[in-house]
Hints:
By secondary structure, the chain is mainly α. The protein is built from 14 helices and no strands.
Amino acid sequence: VAAGITRSLGVGLLNGGIPRNWMPLLAGAIFLPICLVMIFLLDKTPMPSLADRIARKPRNPANVSSQLTFLKKWWPGIVLLGIMYGIVATFRAFRDFFSPEIWTSLTENVESSVYAQTEIVIGFVVLVVLALIYRVRNNKLAFFVLLGEILFGMILIAVATVLFSTKLISGFLWMVLIGIGMFFSYVPTGSLLYDRLMAVSEENLTISFIIYIYDLIGYIGTTALLVYQSFGKHGSASNDFYLTFFKILAYATAGASALLITLAIFYFSITLQFRKLFLPPEDAHLFSNPAHAEEIVSVQKSDEEYENLTATAEPQHQPSRKHQKYEELVEMD
């Protein structure tokens, strides 16, 4: 969404007579208040509730040893998803870098608002789908749903490109569907997928190091694309060339990524015991009763408050009140 809105604003400023050298400064000044508001809201984000901690398991910073242990344990799936992520990230970069040339080939008069229009629609659809998946409490089920979403995204890219090539859909709809399919694959792989994997595995690590690895893979593909753009033989190619190449790249990305994600699904279905996919998690019975969930959450305290409480009111060998409540509910059920 940000890339589309930023490009629309930049083109609009240039069309409005703003000098090219001053356009980035003015665009940044326009977005600065929004950035400050977002930083304020991020700072006010609450800590994970007790219900979240129970559902997602404890997370601790990962040292080098624990990182290597995790990578050795899950390396086939990580490699498959990493290669797929690199392919999709490169495809995303091409769509972003050459979108003016692609749009110019799709339509004679390119409005500055077209970039924002497509990305807002894409962002809304992806956000709604991911929000629905977030509501799935069974981490194993949610993990495979995310894998299925990634595969669906690749199929959507291929189908949309076929429909556009046969003139059954417009260029605008094609770009929207391409974007939806692309971000269906790009967003979950970058973070959400491994958040669920950590929850269902025996590891209690954060996913930061996985994000760093995948970002590196994505940057390698993006850098290669920038080198191609700067020094390639097609630096002065026509807009039709970029459109044709983009369609070929869409087919290649969809085909290769679909194969990789299918292999990843097969691998994880074996290692995570797909036959037990629909069994509820150990703590599901607590949250199936809304009253129990409310009781657990109602007695939670922040880490700082809990430390103060144990230091003044509870002996250190006594369990905390929130854990006592949790154990009481387990015994009741």
